[in-house]
Amino acid sequence: MAVTVKASLGKTKYYTEVTAGENQIITDEPIDKGGQNKGFNPMEILATSLASCTAATLRMYIERKEWDVENINVEVELENFPLTKRAVFKRDISFEGILDDEQLKRLHTIADACPVHKILTNDIEILTKFS
């Protein structure tokens, strides 16, 4: 399944309107980088993709199993190391509910099966054209 997003940036430094279908978000850069800090920066959006996909994947599984979990909390820290061409995602997942060790072990496997996690841990190819 392909997903298409469109980003449009005018003359206002780094203030970018991004649309996907009927939905829209604003991205920007922090003030110290010349932006206005009016939205997530692109690195935050990347980390958001992993966090939100993980939470949704876990919720689907938990509901299917009918486990008693009120909230799923996913925190993702993304650190980029351009000189070594390495990025590290640190993902911290916690639950508000009653889960035993076996359930937690299973949920770890499910978290790693979220579609964004799979994309980020597989080969990635970016094809660019100018039109």
TrEMBL record:
InterPro entries: KH_dom-like_a/b, OsmC/Ohr_fam, OsmC/Ohrsf. It holds the Pfam family OsmC. It comes from the Bacteria. SUPFAM superfamilies: OsmC-like. Transmembrane segments: none annotated. It comes from Chryseobacterium lathyri. The lineage of its organism: Bacteria, Pseudomonadati, Bacteroidota, Flavobacteriia, Flavobacteriales. This is Redox protein.
